[in-house]
Design brief:
By secondary structure, the chain is of the alpha+beta class. 45% of the residues lie in helices and 29% in strands. It starts with 10 loop residues before the first strand and ends with a strand.
C-alpha cells in the first residue's frame, strides 16, 4: 500500500524514486531525483538575468544620451535622433526635476543621471522583494520512505523517498 501526502500539506523540497525490477537473469534499478528548491532557484536566476540585462540596455542607452548631450552632438543626425527618441520616454518623468546646465552646445543633463539612478534602484528593489518572497528559511527536514512490492513477485520493488521542510 502506498501512502500519498497532498501537496497542500507541506512544501515538497526533494523527491527521490527508485524502481528495482528483478526477473530470472535480469535486474534493473532506476533512480530519479527531483529537486524542487533547485528548480525554484533556477527560475529566480533566469528572472534576475533577464531583468538585469534589460536594465543594462536601458542604462547604456541613457549613458549614450548623457554623453551625446555633454559633447554637444547634433540632435538632427540619424544616431542622435534615434538615441534621443528612444530615451526621451525614459527621461520624461524626471524632466524639470533638477536644473540643466548649458555651455555653448554642451548640455549637462542631470535628469538623465537621476533617471539612471532611479531605474537601478527599481530593479534592485524588484530583485530584493522577489528573493524575499521565494526564500524558504525553514531548517527542519522530514523524510518519508515508502517501499512497495508490485504484482509480479518479490523482485519488483518501488521505493519512494520524499523530503520536506516544515
Amino acid at each position: 500500500m502506498t501512502e500519498h501526502t497532498p501537496a497542500t500539506d507541506t512544501v515538497l523540497d526533494r523527491r527521490e524514486e527508485t524502481v528495482t525490477t528483478q526477473a530470472p537473469g535480469y535486474a534493473s534499478t532506476e533512480r530519479m531525483t527531483l529537486d524542487v528548491v533547485a528548480e525554484k532557484r533556477l527560475h529566480l536566476f533566469r528572472f534576475n538575468r533577464i531583468l538585469w540585462s534589460i536594465l543594462g540596455l536601458v542604462e547604456i542607452m541613457l549613458g549614450l544620451r548623457f554623453v551625446l548631450k555633454l559633447l554637444g552632438a547634433n540632435p538632427d543626425s540619424g544616431f542622435g535622433t534615434f538615441i534621443y527618441g528612444v530615451t526621451g520616454l525614459l527621461v520624461m518623468p524626471f524632466t524639470g526635476l533638477l536644473p540643466t546646465w548649458e555651455s555653448g552646445g554642451a548640455i549637462f543633463e542631470t535628469t538623465t543621471l537621476v533617471a539612471m539612478l532611479v531605474f537601478v534602484l527599481i530593479c534592485w528593489g524588484i530583485v530584493y522583494v522577489d528573493r524575499i518572497a521565494s526564500d524558504n528559511p525553514n531548517a527542519r527536514t522530514f523524510s518519508r520512505s515508502t517501499r512497495e512490492t508490485t504484482v509480479g513477485g518479490s523482485g519488483n520493488e518501488r521505493t519512494t523517498t520524499t523530503t520536506t521542510r516544515g
